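Notes from hallway chat w/ T.B., transcribed later so I don't forget. T.B. wanted the structure written out for a chain they're using in a teaching module, and asked if we could keep both sequence and structure tokens in one place. Agreed to drop them here.
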Amino acid sequence: MKENSSTQKVCSFYVSNMHFATMILPFVNKQEEEKRKIVTFFENDFTTNIELVLSRIIILEERKKELLNINWKNTDIIKYINIEKILKTQLNKNNENIIIVNGNTDYINNVNECIERYLEKNSKKIDAKNIKIINFYEVGSFNENIKEILDKHDLIFNTSGEHRIEDIFDGYKKMEKKVNA
């Protein structure tokens, strides 16, 4: 995706559904306060975990309602048309958008391919620079080498925010793609 647009891709790793909920809520809250649009694609339903975390923190009821209005349910991505419909109706063409993808490696790859295809198809309507995709991988559920996942992303997200991958993984160096002459 990076070669075709300036969409930023971020990866993150979590150990449980509750860890994901506690990690994502402060980030999403801040993004919404800064008027960024949140669009989600989840393989599994996170509603219960999100509601539980929100019930245990001190936050204005109005903010809780706004956060619960985000789609925390699973998204059926069997057809490209499903993803295209969601992006068409939910992406904000004039502001920044955060697309959160959570699932197994195949799910994440399929959603990312559909997003890329949608952005290429609508490049005159949507500025790819206004889109950040954050892919969340559950530790232990991906079948790729972690370096392969890191190589596909620009940054890494953890509980303290977004960071350069090199700052989190000592000695990490992104593999350069070889161009055949």
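Follow-up for T.B.: The mean pLDDT is 88. Might be a good example for the class.
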